[in-house]
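anyone seen this seq b4? input:
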Amino acid sequence: MIAHSTNHTPSFHSPMFPTHSQPADHGLFAAIGAATSTILGYLTCTSQVNGEYWWRELGRGR
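predicted toks r here
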């Protein structure tokens, strides 16, 4: 469910990311975005697993 047209991506409406950039730039930004989301997802997953582990260890220690 996309409210706006695909031409309007709010995250890229800044001076550093011109809307009319070259295709290579779009590919680069897409790659950076994918890598960032992958890293963030990995970190989130890892922290959740570690949190559950330490939560169990603390519960067992009491």
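The first helix runs from residue 23 to 61. The helical segments are 23-61. kinda curious what u guys think
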